[in-house]
Amino acid sequence: MDNPLNNDQAHAADASVENVAAETSTESSSLAPQEPTTTTTPPPLSKKAQKRALKDAKWAACKEQRDAKRKEKRLELKLIRKHKIEEGLIPHRPRVAPGQVITSVGIVIDLDFEDKMRDVETRSTAQQISRCYSANKHSPTAVHMHLTSFTGAIKQALSRSDPNHINWATAKCPAEFHAEDLITAFPRARENVVYLTADSPNTLDTLEEDTVYVIGGLVDKNRYPGLCFKKAQDLGLRHGKLPIGEHLEMSTRKVLTINHVFEIMIKYLETKDWLQAFLAVMPARKGGQAKPDAASAEPSSRGGGGGGGDDANAATGKDGDETKADREDALLTESGAQDGEEDEPSEPYSRRGR
Fold first, then answer.
1. Domains of the chain, start order
2. In a 10 Å sphere around its CB, with 0-12 CB exposed, 13-18 middle and 19+ buried, how is residue 318 labelled?
3. Which residues contact 90 (CB under 8 A, 6 or more apart)?
4. According to the UniProt record, where is the region Disordered (predicted)?
5. Residue 264 has pLDDT above 50, yes or no
6. Considering 110, 162, 205, 220, which one is annotated as catalytic?
């Protein structure tokens, strides 16, 4: 006969063994190898990239100091100008030329190249825009000035270098700002728009009434040759170039800034004489001399197109054609605010243009 006590003990022992086995199985499953988790770590920066990041951080940290210095410089230049006017050293110039006539000609600065410019080039573009506006409002014969694709970095740069630009749209000699691109802002672009590009085979004869001429707002040190010409072709727009080669012999390469092209065009509208316009605007250091037969030669009109910058890059020139003295003079004669910051020197321009 079995002993009941021994049977109970046997059953308890079996249950204990089963519990231990279950716990062991659970622990084994918890200790089973898991799928490895993949973590993507960015590759380490090169030494050059580290230096650039450090430089950018220092530049950002000093922004307030730079803004304060610009403001101080503007006030100083205004005071110098005021003293010179009081002493009779320079004439007082009204904000808008007396009796100014605004023609039916329009000039657009196409700013749709922002992604192709460095920070210093963006700032240079903003400064040149300010000079264009200043030249237009002081000219006896002004044009309708437009800025297209006016957004992003260039808009911010202009806000810093010339805070008064917010008043341009309502001034006596207005400038219009368009956030839209060229085609959206000018629906009839294919009918009455001429894109200025040095690569165009069409040389300007005159500035046509009721026509809009486009200057590419790009400072790029010739990294993108032919860019504006290609854009004009892709958009199906007329294109052309200024007749610089027909009228001038240059001792240096024909590098023009945005404001040089703009000023030549408004000077031509005033004088109706290309040679006079070139000589009045071209910096003396370029050594531009009238060709012996320039007075009698008539510029060709191939293809019926309009303006542009011949061997100079009319789609906007490079920075560096203007010396520090030129910039300070522009600041002294400009009633609006400008920062006086030096532009980065330009590399020599090739004949390929945009």
1. 102-333 (3.40.1280.30)
2. buried
3. 81, 84, 332, 333
4. 1-54, 287-354
5. yes
6. 220
